Amino acid sequence: MLNYPSWVPNEIAVGYIEHGIQALLSWQLDVLNNRSLQAPQYGNFIFSAPTSSGKTVVAELIAVNTVRQLRCKAVFVFPYISVAKEKFLTLQKIWRRVDLRVSAFMGSQTSPFQAWDASICTIEKANSLLNRMIDEKTIFDIGVLVIDEFHMLFDGNRGPLVEHIVGKVLYISRFLNHRIQIIGLSATLPNLDELADWLNAEKYETQFRPIQLHEMIMCDSQLRDVNTLQCIRTISSEFTVPNDIEHSIIHLCTESVVKGESVLVFCSSKAETEKLALAISHHFGDYFKSSNNQNLISSLNIQSLEAVKQAFHHEVQFVDDILQKTIPYGIAFHHAGLTVEERESIENAFHEQLLRIVCATSTLSSGINLPAHRVIIKAQMCGPVALNGLTYMQMIGRAGRLGQTEKGINSTDCS
Example GO biological process term (predicted)? Predict the structure, then answer.
């Protein structure tokens, strides 16, 4: 089927094609044609590739092959419920084509052990599931473990739990004579060699990114290339705003919205997301009142935004006061302080490009699949919430997603 490997069932290939993956990339084929990942070795594998490069598809195809060949079960581990839920719905549709059952273990969702061939779990649920299976001596039915965002191993809070999961599986493979294939994937994976040694796994690393990403630093109203620090351009006074960081961000947001593009602005705190969303909406409101920027006004679908606002009132009993002020201008904020209903409504409206600007905390960088044309990081460079390399890579991974944008732009302010 097109350029899918011959061992991939046609039904599975068709499922991915219908989800927009018409053909595999060359690096994906390099991995999938690695014989050590198939019978009889079913070797462990760990790989690092940029966001939107197709890592998850590779892991899923390896897993479905192992499950079908060994007649075993697969456990998929995702760090966030929102990502796990999205993957559950996708994988369920594709794997049912070859009569494989996919169940979810996240939040309050569980399934009888006999009722699934693949389980989609959060980290905590995966640990509980494996513990239960060890107690019930059904752990030997597991044949493959897939861990997404493997860099969570280095997370101060949840990293030890990921290590426990991997450690248990390694023990079972090495000392109980039951091979469980481990597949780890991440966009930002340090110490790849050491991790490969620990897992006794083959490793693979690629920097290929199907969507070009432009990374810039913003200092003193100047956009500079992140590598050379050469000034690319100076933020102009076109929109008559003062020359400071917040207003430079407002300028960049306005610039993108006028072009019909979407923007994610990452902030260091929940309060900062609300403050910035409100500030941007105030400036948009000034443009609307004075009609100074017809390009901005015409680029926003006012009727649709009013429908979004009404939908919020219908779905959410008490809409946040600030959201009521920002949504009419296509702007929202997103953090853990909002209700689940509010967050989902914001995510859906942003996906549909009704909301054009979302100011969010760092959890959004890997918590959900929410791509944008431009990502702006309003980050602290020192202190307890200073931006680190792993978080930075996750954030810029939201810019320019395959099949959704033609390019990605990342701007980081150095305040």
Answer: DNA repair
